User: Which sequence fits this backbone?
């Protein structure tokens, strides 16, 4: 670990998180708690896609949205434990995000809706993240050997 450019990498990660938070606040009007909730639900409800090579190839690009049957429910309890939030606050925010169309309430919890057509509120977010990953490549290239 002593030879790794950890301070350099940490600086990039902090910049990434800050830019991501700013983007979400400006674009969608999310609070920081809502950003955390959506990140947890998006990550957990699509975890299997990242683990399964076939699903990743089939649904991991812009060509086809991940179908709802491959989006697994994330419970209120999981979200509040993961974020250290009170259960009632978490439940209320999940319901509000659902009512605003950012999440789906499904049996067993919540999931990110399939991002297609006019309902695709994450297209600009994915473009933003792709540009950040491109920036990361530039940062990595600057790391001294």
Assistant:
């Amino acid at each position: 670990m002593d030879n790794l450019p950890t301070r350099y990498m940490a600086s990039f990660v902090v910049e990434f998180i800050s830019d991501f938070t700013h983007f979400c606040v400006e674009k969608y009007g999310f609070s920081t708690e809502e950003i955390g909730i959506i990140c947890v639900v998006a990550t957990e409800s699509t975890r299997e896609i990242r683990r399964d090579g076939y699903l990743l190839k089939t649904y991991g690009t812009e060509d086809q949205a991940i179908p709802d049957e491959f989006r697994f429910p994330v419970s209120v309890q999981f979200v509040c434990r993961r974020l250290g939030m009170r259960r009632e606050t978490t439940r209320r925010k999940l319901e509000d995000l659902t009512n605003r169309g950012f999440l789906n309430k499904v049996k067993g919890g919540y999931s990110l809706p399939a991002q297609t057509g006019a309902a695709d509120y994450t297209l600009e977010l994915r473009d933003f993240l792709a540009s950040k990953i491109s920036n990361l490549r530039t940062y990595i290239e600057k790391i001294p050997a």
Summary: Helices lie at 6-28, 32-45, 47-51, 53-59, 76-83, 87-99, 123-142.
